[in-house]
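Slide 14.
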Amino acid sequence: MRAVKNLLVLYTGGTIGMLQTAEGLAPAGGFEARMREHFAVCGDAPKLQWSLRELNPLIDSANMQQANWLAMREAIVEAVERDGHDGVLVLHGTDTLAYSAAALSFLLLGLPVPVLLTGSMLPAGAPGSDAWANLVGALNLFESGLENGVQLFFHGQLLHGCRASKLRSEAFDAFKALPRQRDGERAAELPARLDYRQPRQPVSLAVLPVFPGLAAGLVRGLLDSGIQGLLLECYGSGTGPSDDQALLDVLHDARQAGVMIAATSQCPEGAVVFDTYAAGSRLRDTGLVSGGGMTREAALGKMFALLGAGLDADSAEHWFALDLCGERA
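Slide 15: predicted structure.
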């Protein structure tokens, strides 16, 4: 825990900096000037030194893609390694804020500075907006001291980057840490391949919920599309239609062909424990790796970081099953 002296504010777009257009709210540049103007007249200016960089292009976070995650990682690494910043605040839209927090948690493993993400439900300047409260609250945390690693701050709550989910579409307290089971073994050390300095590549991934009537043909079509990883959201403790041999065969064949397939629970307070039911054991035996109590956001971000580092399915599964930054422990 240490106070940050030289902060980078990385503005990616999102509601916090949007302005009204003929088509509705849209990301707008010039947010550094708006921040400095606000602090000049409101008297709550942070004492720490900060500068702002706009990530080009600014986006509505509903348009978030893997390329944007990679651009954020690159900008953050440059800020620390080249420009000497000792903390980074990422301003981000709320629709995919939890996804980006999770992805960056794994893309920045070992980074020796704190990274904090925040945003707002209403634009800065809108009547009754939460933007300035979230922004000033985040800056105050940097002044008082933060642990290294990625965290999310919203509506007065400081949340682990891999444990947050957006649960409300309109309320200011939109984000919560779901009470999911944490029982993963902590990795003794991180391989150099997963260090924050190592660039990543885009990965073809898919997320598929298990549902009554899920057909083997649908899953086969998805797997045959060339995806490298599949996140299967199972029932309860990791169960699914285990009496559908055709479906089990599709999953088994895809894993044998080198596709990584991981399982999470659909339940907000759930965790995958395959051996609880025979239905879970049969799914596990096709080659699925358990996501334990990880959220969808954490499991997807972790899969992206592992496969994007060039690991094959076997190596990726090994590290997926271990706790790397507090996502499973």
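Speaker note: The chain has two domains: 6-177, 192-320.
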